[in-house]
Amino acid sequence: MTHRHVDLFIVGGGINGAGIAADAAGRGLSVALCEMNDLANATSSSSSKLIHGGLRYLEHYEFRLVREALSEREVLLKNAPHLVTPMRFQMPHRPHLRPAWLIRLGLFLYDHIGKREMLPGSKGVKYGADSPLKQDISHGFEYSDCWVDDARLVVANAMSAREHGALIMTRTRCESAKRENGVWVIDVVHTETGESQRFTADGMVNAAGPWVSSFIESKLERKAPYSIRMIKGSHIVVPKLFEQSNSFIMQNADKRIVFAIPYRDQYTLIGTTDEEYRGDPKDVAISDAETDYILDVANQHFKTQLSKQDIVWTYSGVRPLLNDESSNASAVTRDYTLHVEDDHGKAPLLSIFGGKITTYRQLALSAMKDLKEYYPNMGKEWTHAHPLPGGDMSNDHQAFAQKLLQEFPFLTQAQAKRFTGSYGTQTYVLLGEATSVNDLGECFGQDLYQKEVDYLIEHEWARTAEDILWRRSKLGLEFTTEQCARLESYLKSELANEEILISEQIA
């Protein structure tokens, strides 16, 4: 069994684990991270794809969380402009909602409670005959938030961590962790090869998401300091419901919020739900009741009426929220709690309870602040002013896509647009010296070429067709069964060759 020592060992490859890995490595700590599946495999790829302050959190008086989240919008717009883009949201006003003056007051607070430099403020809107909304909805409100490619944001943070020297291990399960002589002794196993590896670490972070408490109880064999409530959120994707570029935020009579968001040009993403979940997080799936609920809210608002037959894709995720004893799942706090415990001042364990994708960077800052006494020589905070890989570009996607087309005229408009919003300036690494479409290799379908797949294997930890089609991209929505099978066959062949090469190098 091989052995390696690091300053900090992180369990969990979601947004919080990847964010802490990047922050810690950039401060000069040696870092290793293990994820039992693919990066962003669970909750972090199942969000509503929004970087937002959380307008509805104002109703629950979570002003600090809203202020922090609103400030983070600006940071992420600057540091990840390829993945985080401005979006306007319209809130149709209906009789069961609060009075218009009160909503305007809430939006005024939303505009001014946090830092806002790049995004326009709120305003009222009127709906006419050309509106996609039902005729009885005549007016509403519009405000700013942002859209994000959630899974790619996780990958970008993992890449940033690796750039600063971190070891990122996917498909690697933490089998056990125990303190010995003031350090953590951690055994991990690769879930596909069965290969075991031992690490020692001065500190450990439990960023296991929905498994945060069960990890403490099963792997560390101790009682979890907090209980979590697993709240399931489900979404549906349907053919494009409206032509407008803005999203709609719809508040139901039960005060729950459902978004309708333009998605990949051809679709509309609708969700989310909030319901208690008590099963294994890996088995989460949308229920008939959730499907009916989302369709009902959409059909209350839009002229185009939807049925289950219109749904082209669904996904569900479990949010591990701190149990604050709220009786209503929608009211459970989206704030986070970090718990640190050590053994006589050594071998700290920091566990993360709660959180949301918008505030992941602030959560990482808080984690490093809590760990500072154990690592007095760590560097200063830096992530606020350092673009994520691919993010050293302006937020003008159209201009960057045109630049790609000028430099790589063999690309299609659709490719240039997708590369801009997925890879940003990393597109130059992906395309390399390619001068024609023939240099891109085999096309697996939907403009996914061998060169892009090879890039994802080499630079982004992709191992399966699911990794590529559903997390690194959303091309799975258009891929046929035959195309998926061909891609999977290619991946198995390439990875087998990679393992042979590694074995020869070791020998």
UniProtKB/TrEMBL annotation:
E.C. number(s) listed in UniProt: 1.1.5.3
Reactions listed under catalytic activity: a quinone + sn-glycerol 3-phosphate = dihydroxyacetone phosphate + a quinol
Coiled-coil stretches: none
PROSITE patterns per UniProt: FAD_G3PDH_1, FAD_G3PDH_2
Domain FAD dependent oxidoreductase: 7-361
Residue spans crossing the bilayer: none
Span of domain Alpha-glycerophosphate oxidase C-terminal: 383-480
GO molecular function, one term: glycerol-3-phosphate dehydrogenase (quinone) activity
Gene3D superfamilies in the cross-refs: 6.10.250.1890, Alpha-glycerophosphate oxidase, cap domain (1.10.8.870), D-Amino Acid Oxidase, subunit A, domain 2 (3.30.9.10), FAD/NAD(P)-binding domain (3.50.50.60)
InterPro entries per the UniProt record, alphabetical: DAO_C (IPR031656), DAO_C_sf (IPR038299), FAD-dep_OxRdtase (IPR006076), FAD/NAD-bd_sf (IPR036188), G3P_DH_FAD-dep (IPR000447)
Names of the cofactor(s): FAD
Keywords, sorted A to Z: FAD, Flavoprotein, Oxidoreductase
Protein's name according to its UniProt entry: Glycerol-3-phosphate dehydrogenase
Organism encoding this protein: Marinomonas ostreistagni
UniProt gene name: glpD
